[in-house]
Fold this sequence. Notes:
The protein has about 290 residues and is α+β, with helices and mostly antiparallel strands. It has helices at about 50-65, 85-90, 115-125, 160-170, 170-195, 245-250, 265-285, and strands spanning about 10-15, 20-25, 30-35, 40, 40-45, 75, 95, 100, 105-110, 140-145, 150, 195-210, 210-215, 225-230. The N and C termini lie close together (about 10 Å). One of its GO terms (molecular function) is phosphoribosylaminoimidazolesuccinocarboxamide synthase activity.
Amino acid sequence: xxxxxxxxxxxxxxxxxxxxxxxxxxxxxxxxxxxxxxxxxxxxxxxxxxxxxxxxxxxxxxxxxxxxxxxxxxxxxxxxxxxxxxxxxxxxxxxxxxxxxxxxxxxxxxxxxxxxxxxxxxxxxxxxxxxxxxxxxxxxxxxxxxxxxxxxxxxxxxxxxxxxxxxxxxxxxxxxxxxxxxxxxxxxxxxxxxxxxxxxxxxxxxxxxxxxxxxxxxxxxxxxxxxxxxxxxxxxxxxxxxxxxxxxxxxxxxxxxxxxxxxxxxxxxxxxxxxxxxxxxxxxxxxxxxxx
Length: 292
C-alpha cells in the first residue's frame, strides 16, 4: 500500500507545508492533505498511507460539529467540478476554505502532564514556569492550561509567555485566544471522553476574517493532538499514544540528531502509525475509513 507524497494541481500554489499543499481556487483556498508525516520539524521520506484522509476528514468532522462555538474556515470537502479529473486523488483529502489573515500563534491547551510539559517538569519542577506542586506523568491538571507558542515558518516554534503573546497580538486578542482555546479544548475533551478517548493536549490556529476571529488549519487530529485510550489511562505511567507521538517515540530510540535527512522508517513503524490514525478515526466517528 502506497501513500501520497505530493498532490500537484493546475492551480496557483500558495504554500507547500510539511503535510498540506495550499492552492488558490477562484477567490478561495484549496487545501490538499498528503500522507507526508513530520517529526521534530523534519519530513520523513516515507508517507503513512491514509494519514492525509484521516486528518482532513477528522478536521471537517469537528469543524462542522463545533461551528456554533466559533466560526471556522471550512466551506466544503467536495471535489469541485473543475477538478473532477483528479477526483481519485482528491477525494477525502481536500477542503475548500475561506481565506483569512492567519495569526502567527500556535494556541496549545494542555489538560494533562505529558510531552514537553512533562520533560520540563522533570527538569525544573515547573510547568511552563508555573508551580503545580507534586505531579506524576500523565496527571490531569486542575484546570486546562494555555501554553501558546510562536508559529515559525522555519525552525522550531518557541513558547510564548503572557507578555510575549500580548506583544504579538495585543492584550484583547491574547485574552480572546486563551478563552476560546480553552473553551474548544473542554468541548473536545468532553466529546471524546464519551467515546473512550482522552485528549491530553492539542493545538489550534486562528485567523482574522473582516476583523473577526476564525478557526483555521486543523482541529482534534492525530497530528495536532495527543490521544490516549481512556481504558488505558493511569496517572504515573507512560500511555501508548494514538497519534503522531508513536512515531516520535520510535525516532527518540534511534541515534538521530533530529536534523535532515531523516532515518528511514521500517515497514512495521509505518503500519503501526497508520493503524493508530485509523483507530482514532473509528473511535471518534464510529466509522471505518473505506479504501479508495
